[in-house]
Design goal:
There is one protein chain. The protein has nine helices and eight strands. By secondary structure, the protein is α/β, with parallel strands linked by helices. Strands 6-5-4-7-8 form a five-stranded mixed sheet, sandwiched between helices. A three-stranded antiparallel sheet has the order 1-2-3, with no helix packed on it. The radius of gyration is 24 Å and the shape is elongated.
């Protein structure tokens, strides 16, 4: 034990009995120094260390990759409690419009979009949550999403979230799932067979979503335990994805 650690240990007090008879007692699962009171045997960890801005920026990037929260804790030596609180605050800042930039209506007469849905679950596999997406073909941005069941009501809710400016000029390509025909006006809707390749862009994004968001991996222990975190994690990734697509589109066009 160096002088700094000795000074820190001497200044510590037990959170239960408030006495300073403290000894070191190994390390926690995440590598933090564990302490124990010699009188009441209470064990505790000093939590006054702050996480640097550089490490917080790295965590924001890791949340966009297929790595679990506990994996981030192990790699960066942060506690799970701190990380969950940090992630919650971060997700609350995600824009509701998913950072989608509406293309110029003056340049395009018809906006061709693709819609599709993919399966997920919360807490256990019986609690199915279907993720409905609408993708704009030209920029490949995600216009909107809706998470619910696979019924007509979810298809209607998805269509209602499409911006009015785009909805008036949209031609929607979907697979042959009946719910779409019940929600989207027939003069703006084209049903396509999977083999036609007409909805391949949104289906490819579904694959990206499963590969990058650990909660959506089909056989995983990283599944969401609550609906709020499930939806916000997906929105956080899509918002970042849309920003990247906008930068790429503006660079080339």
């Amino acid at each position: 034990m160096n002088n700094q650690e000795i000074t820190q240990a001497n200044n510590l007090r037990c959170p239960r009995c408030q006495l300073s008879h403290i000894k070191r007692n190994g390390h926690t699962y995440y590598g933090k120094q564990n302490y124990q009171c010699k009188l009441c045997d209470r064990q505790f960890v000093v939590r006054n260390r702050t996480v640097s801005p550089e490490k917080q920026a790295l965590i924001k990037s890791l949340l966009l990759e297929r790595i679990s929260l506990r994996g981030i804790c192990r790699v960066l030596k942060v506690s799970l409690t701190w990380l969950i609180n940090f992630v919650e605050r971060l997700y609350q800042t995600t824009s509701e419009d998913l950072q989608f930039a509406l293309p110029s209506a003056a340049e395009i007469e018809i906006f061709c979009v693709e819609a599709d849905e993919l399966w997920s679950f919360v807490a256990r596999r019986e609690n199915k949550r279907w993720i409905w997406l609408v993708l704009e073909r030209r920029t490949r941005q995600i216009i909107t999403l809706h998470i619910g069941d696979r019924s007509q009501n979810s298809a209607i809710a998805l269509w209602a979230k499409v911006p009015l400016e785009l909805k008036a000029q949209a031609l929607v390509l979907t697979d042959c799932w009946d719910a779409y025909a019940l929600a989207i006006p027939s003069n703006q809707h084209v049903m396509c067979e999977k083999q036609s390749g007409q909805v391949s862009l949104v289906e490819r994004f579904n694959c990206t979503l499963r590969q990058r968001v650990s909660r959506l991996v089909r056989k995983s222990l990283s599944f969401s335990k609550s609906d709020w975190f499930h939806e916000e994690a997906i929105k956080y990734f899509i918002a970042h994805y849309n920003l990247e697509r906008r930068k790429m589109f503006e660079h080339y066009f």
